[in-house]
Write a structure and sequence with these properties.
Helices cover 51% and strands 12% of the residues. The chain is of the alpha/beta class and 462 residues long. The chain is flat. The protein starts with 5 loop residues before the first helix and ends in a 6-residue tail after the last helix.
Length: 462
């Protein structure tokens, strides 16, 4: 829904090309160090091509060229780590799929080392250059803020905290000075703004009052234009909204929502659904024929009852669906009760299946049917929906999207029993954050982290 400027697209394209060149350089350097200049490069050419194509796929899926995050060091490193992990996975699939075992493992380690070093070094150089650029272009820009509400104080904190932006915060203007703790930063009343800006040669004025102050807004805007002062509007919505808002355009009409909704876009819906179908089919066709007979025999040998367990769960928009799992408990009459640590209902086989999350495998049929997604908020039981939707304000937001086999909350440690309310609240926070920040790259990160968690084991999986 957000419009992407030509400048932003160009920057992303340039960064992709530069990093492809760096990867190519790392590949060639590793080849030189391993084989020397005398050996022909021809038999490694196919790997060279795949090496670069895999980076394009991995980089775009992990959204490592998101402009707002390029200069965020922590986020940048995190995105690059996931990008290289996915890249390595693609290369491994290529080598195994085409039986290209003749490629030197030592060479691959050297190629990844050289490429990662080059890409990370280039990113740090980019961050340094960007900060220097901002300091040179905006250094000592004098800024004043009209208003003392939430938006005004957020601006003040930004100017003070982010020195690299190069702004010099001059002060607030308000007719209600008693409403701010920063009394020493108040430079006058609203009627004093113009004289102060002319006297101090202010560069930018930030209007942080409610948008209902239309006459004042128009007056200050005209004054700024007449005196070559940049005028910015940071409307204070706190009078009627208690959360951040998201603004996008439908044609030329600005529309405001109280949260981001990336999965409202048809393109994203189709992309997620296509991946769900492809991934679930791959699991059903290639994994089930081998693992289903083993699990089925183990379940039957330990306890009487069916192999599969079916329970109605609330899905998207609270629509009930039959959720499938491998049976992990002895037959009982309290299936509505959440499993607890050392639960006597759980069989030995069931405990292993739960610990490794193998009990969830039948849910790939739910994914194929469209009741679930590979990634999304975990579907709770019906009685949990009734209880938590009354106790947690944002609980129902989880049901704006299709529930998942794994989710953002689960890979961040919030799975298993929820005795205390705050544990469910944290789950809901992560689920809402997932909905508001969804990207295909985020789904891939969650899947990769799920696999890693299964391998190392999870304390709360029981």
């Amino acid at each position: 829904m957000e419009k992407v400027s030509t400048h932003t697209k160009l920057l992303k394209a340039v960064l992709l090309v530069v990093e492809l060149l760096l990867l190519s350089l790392g590949f060639r350097v590793a080849y030189f160090l391993k084989f020397g200049p005398e050996i022909s490069f021809t038999h490694y050419y196919s790997l060279f091509v795949i090496f670069n194509l895999a980076w394009i796929v991995s980089a775009l899926f992990n959204d490592i060229y998101h402009v707002k995050e390029i200069t965020n060091t922590r986020k940048m490193l995190s995105n690059l780590v996931y990008a290289f992990l996915l890249h390595g996975f693609i290369i491994a699939v290529y080598i195994v799929g085409f039986k290209a075992h003749y490629f030197s493992r030592e060479f691959l380690v050297m190629a990844y080392g050289a490429s990662a070093l080059a890409v990370v070094a280039a990113r740090f150089m980019l961050i340094s250059a960007y900060k220097r650029y901002k300091l040179s272009t905006t250094a000592n820009r004098k800024a004043v803020v009209i208003g003392t509400g939430r938006s005004a104080h957020s601006l003040h904190d930004m100017f003070i905290t982010n020195k690299e932006l190069g702004y010099r915060f001059m002060g607030f203007f308000t007719d209600k000075p008693e409403e701010t703790p920063h009394q020493d930063l108040i430079r006058g009343r609203l009627e004093d703004i113009k004289a102060y800006c002319l006297r101090e040669q202010v560069d930018e004025i930030y209007f942080a009052l409610p948008i209902t102050e239309r006459d004042l807004l128009d007056d200050i805007a005209k004054f700024a234009d007449d005196n070559f002062i940049y005028f910015r509007i940071v409307p204070d919505f706190s009078a009627f909204l208690q959360k951040n808002v998201n603004i996008y355009h439908m044609d030329s009409i600005p529309v405001m929502t109280v949260r981001k909704e990336p999965l409202m876009e048809t393109t994203n819906q189709w992309l997620k659904r296509a991946f769900d179908i492809a991934f679930s089919l791959a699991v059903i066709l290639f994994l089930f024929p081998f693992i289903l007979p083993i699990i089925a025999i183990a379940i039957k040998l330990e306890s009487e009852g069916p192999i599969f367990f079916k329970q109605m769960r609330p899905g998207k928009k609270n629509q009930l669906f039959a959720c499938y799992k491998f049976r992990t408990m002895r037959i009982n009459n309290v299936t509505h009760q959440q499993a607890t640590k050392d639960d006597p209902r759980i069989t030995k086989v069931g405990r292993f299946l739960r610990k490794t999350s193998l009990d969830e495998l039948p849910q790939f049929f739910n994914v194929l049917l469209g009741d679930m997604s590979v990634v999304g908020p975990r579907p709770n039981m019906i009685n949990q929906l009734e209880h938590y939707s009354k106790a947690i304000d944002t609980y129902t937001l989880r049901h704006f999207v299709t529930p998942g086999i794994t989710g953002f909350a689960q890979v961040n440690g919030y799975r298993g029993e929820t005795k205390q309310m705050h544990l469910m609240q944290k789950r809901v926070e992560y689920d809402v954050a997932y909905i508001e920040n969804w990207s295909f790259g985020l789904d891939l990160k969650i899947i990769l982290k799920t696999v890693l968690n299964i391998i190392k084991g999870e304390e709360n999986a029981y």
